[in-house]
């Protein structure tokens, strides 16, 4: 049988298993059917309900604009799949091509897509995390519970962590006229994602809107009352804050634990893959039948020196899922690379923040347009003399221009395309925090180097 015949037989009768029934998994399933795959399709997910959209959870759901149950993802087409929901995968056997489930079942496959995503990083003391009034925000059940707690009118909310999620939650609290304290170990909010200069802008925004912002300190202890309700937080500087609600917003943990013995290059930063979304083994070999998409993927990008990059971005999950699905059912010569430039957005304190590129892949930053005091500007990021990213505050219409600069490796600092360039703008060091803080605040993490380097380490931490 020729390779073309084999491929057609797989498209007609093959078995595809998708582990991770969220955005990337659903979009991949739809793309497989659109590509003409008529074989069996199995969707495995650890949550009980249908796939839903996560960005609205820290935005529209917490404001009460959208109910948590209203975030279900729309179906673009019927995927005719077997749904195995409410039970997580706990093993992958590459020798027998089987996914092991936590309830003891085994699901055979010819090709598998791993899109298990990220879970919220919990508070480090379990008894304190279990206090009534202590929340994380990752699932719609989390968001629904926190929305009801905010609607009850707490005397104060404590937000632990000032990344994008924590900052958005603080913004919603102030919109609802709820007193809020934000605790951040780094020198400023958003510093892990956008650097020190933008972090200072974010600090000014929060304090201008009445946030009790405390940076450079750590929450050491959450105290409850006799009824088991959260009442007070203790800080590393000896101070305390009384509050009724605490939101732990310390980033996410990539769901790779179940792959511990699989032989894949999977660890705390995700699963290494090539630009075609094919997973790599610990020895650096590309697998032919194991694909990766979404937040859990570590994918090289030629624009960023082929370094492995992990992205927690909505658009990236969709694009990667479509590339993976296409490559699953295509001949080698027809496969696509995933080479898109990352984009991200956030709304907080009345400001629309958007980015293009990878701000964490930079050594300098400069304001190229607009006014920082007015919170209406564009900042460009550069690495060794070329443009690598841009971030806009209430000024997103020029981001396509900066995307072109990134794609063409334009010189940094770039010429301003409009007359509103600040007269005294000069590049400054981008000044990101160390790896520990960076992991908690960033939605884009540059985690590796050229894949030709033979340095693969599987590091597992007890949590």
Automatic annotation (TrEMBL):
Cofactor(s) listed in the protein's UniProt record: FAD
This enzyme's EC code(s): 1.-.-.-
Coiled-coil ranges per UniProt: none
Enzyme category, top tier: oxidoreductase
Location of the Reductase C-terminal domain: 344-415
Keyword Oxidoreductase annotated: yes
Domain FAD/NAD(P)-binding: 15-321
Pfam families registered for this protein in UniProt: Pyr_redox_2, Reductase_C
Gene3D superfamilies: 3.30.390.30, FAD/NAD(P)-binding domain
Domain of life: Bacteria
Transmembrane intervals: none
Assigned keywords, A-Z: FAD, Flavoprotein, Oxidoreductase
GO molecular function: oxidoreductase activity
Protein name as annotated: FAD/NAD(P)-binding oxidoreductase
Native source species: Streptomyces sirii
Lineage: Bacteria, Bacillati, Actinomycetota, Actinomycetes, Kitasatosporales
């Amino acid at each position: 049988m020729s390779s073309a015949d084999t491929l057609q037989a797989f498209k007609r009768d093959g078995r595809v298993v998708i582990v991770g029934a969220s955005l990337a998994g659903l979009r991949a399933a739809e793309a497989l059917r659109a590509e003409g795959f008529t074989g069996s399709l199995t969707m495995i997910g650890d949550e009980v309900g249908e796939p839903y959209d996560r960005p609205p959870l820290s935005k529209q759901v917490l404001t009460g604009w959208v109910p948590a149950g209203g975030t279900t993802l729309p179906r673009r087409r019927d995927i005719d799949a077997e749904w195995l929901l409410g039970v997580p995968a706990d093993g992958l056997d590459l020798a027998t091509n089987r996914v092991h489930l936590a309830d003891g079942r085994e699901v055979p496959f010819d090709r598998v897509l791993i899109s298990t995503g990220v879970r919220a990083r919990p508070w480090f003391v379990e008894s304190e995390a279990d206090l009534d009034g202590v929340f994380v925000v990752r699932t719609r059940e989390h968001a629904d519970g926190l929305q009801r707690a905010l609607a009850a009118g707490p005397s104060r909310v404590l937000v632990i962590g000032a990344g994008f999620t924590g900052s958005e939650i603080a913004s919603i609290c102030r919109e609802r006229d709820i007193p809020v304290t934000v605790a951040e170990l780094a020198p400023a909010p958003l510093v892990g994602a956008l650097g020190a200069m933008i972090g200072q802008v974010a600090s000014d925004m929060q304090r201008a809107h009445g946030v009790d912002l405390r940076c450079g300190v750590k929450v050491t202890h959450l105290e409850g009352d006799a009824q088991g309700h959260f009442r007070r937080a203790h800080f590393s500087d000896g101070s305390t804050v009384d509050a009724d609600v605490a939101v732990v917003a310390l980033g996410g943990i990539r769901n790779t634990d179940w792959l511990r013995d699989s032989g894949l290059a999977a660890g705390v930063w995700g699963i290494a893959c090539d630009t075609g979304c094919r997973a790599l083994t610990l020895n650096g070999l590309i697998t032919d039948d194991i694909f990766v998409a979404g937040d859990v993927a570590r994918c090289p990008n030629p624009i960023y020196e082929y370094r492995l990059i992990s992205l927690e971005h909505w658009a990236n999950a969709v694009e990667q899922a479509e590339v993976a699905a296409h490559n699953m059912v295509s001949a080698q010569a027809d496969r696509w690379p995933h080479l898109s430039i990352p984009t991200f957005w956030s709304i907080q304190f009345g400001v629309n923040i958007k980015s293009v590129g990878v701000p964490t892949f930079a050594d300098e930053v400069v304001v190229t347009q607009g006014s920082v005091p007015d919170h209406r500007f564009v900042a460009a990021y550069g690495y060794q003399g070329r443009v690598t990213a841009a971030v806009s505050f209430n000024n997103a219409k020029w981001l396509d221009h900066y995307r072109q600069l990134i794609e063409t490796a334009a010189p940094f600092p770039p010429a301003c395309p409009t007359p509103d360039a600040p007269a005294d703008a000069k590049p400054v060091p981008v000044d990101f925090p160390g790896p520990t803080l960076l992991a908690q605040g960033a939605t884009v993490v540059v985690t590796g180097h050229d894949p030709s380097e033979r340095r693969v380490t599987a590091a597992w931490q007890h949590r």
